[in-house]
Write a structure and sequence with these properties.
By secondary structure, this protein is mostly helical. The chain has one helix and no strands. The radius of gyration is 11 Å and the shape is globular. It starts with 11 loop residues before the first helix and ends in a 20-residue tail after the last helix.
């Protein structure tokens, strides 16, 4: 997986962009994604 670098704090908009553009395309059936309670994960 390639890195996703932001110049500043992550927010919900940036996190969603990461999920859609970086994470989802490389996930395969059976993969597990674990999220914590970071506020940007709750959008």
């Amino acid at each position: 997986m390639r890195p996703f670098v932001l110049d500043g704090p992550i927010n919900a908009e940036c996190f969603l962009a990461y999920v859609e553009q970086i994470l989802v395309p490389v996930l395969r059936k059976g993969d597990t994604v674990i999220l914590d309670n970071l506020s940007s994960h709750k959008n």
